[in-house]
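Re: [ENG-882] Designed sequences occasionally contain unexpected residues at chain ends

Forwarding the minimal case from QA. Structure tokens:
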């Protein structure tokens, strides 16, 4: 653990994920006509949908994050998406779990979740793409700084595709 890693994990990617999750939560509430200060019961269908949207967003953002975090400076396009079978199986399991959490009535009853509308995915997917783009831009900037700082010290070998 070092300061650049802490900054990236907590103050960059973590804040993006948190903002996206809260955006999904309030998106569902807003679409249902909720107003600030209005209390919703723990079993209120709107509240259940909002919390499910929040959880779903966290899961989707973590799926994107697992690919982004394979390298602190190398692009996802250079590290590849299919190089680690355990990650792929983990992502498949996450997607299956996400679908069950959202759309299986018995899981809804068990976990206190509720199906989210397609409009939620219309918000979540662009937010995940936004995090992907922002992190790729940060990595690009980090690579440029690294190359400017030490063009003869072998910094290029760190950046090479394996």
């Amino acid at each position: 653990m070092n300061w650049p890693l802490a900054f990236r994990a907590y103050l960059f990617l973590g804040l993006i994920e948190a903002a996206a999750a809260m955006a999904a939560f309030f998106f569902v509430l807003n679409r249902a006509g909720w107003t600030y200060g209005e209390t919703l019961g723990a079993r209120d269908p709107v509240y259940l949908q909002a919390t499910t949207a929040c959880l779903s967003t966290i899961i989707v953002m973590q799926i994107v994050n697992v690919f982004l975090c394979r390298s602190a400076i190398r692009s996802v396009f250079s590290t590849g998406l299919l190089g680690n079978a355990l990650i792929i199986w983990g992502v498949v399991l996450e997607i299956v779990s996400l679908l069950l959490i959202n759309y299986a009535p018995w899981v809804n009853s068990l976990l206190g979740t509720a199906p989210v509308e397609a409009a939620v995915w219309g918000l979540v997917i662009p937010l995940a793409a936004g995090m992907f783009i922002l992190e790729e831009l940060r990595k690009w900037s980090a690579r440029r700084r690294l190359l400017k700082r030490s063009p003869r010290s072998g910094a290029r070998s760190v950046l090479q595709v394996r």
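QA comment: On inspection the terminal residues look reasonable. DSSP finds seven helices and no strands in the chain. Proposing we downgrade this to a documentation issue.
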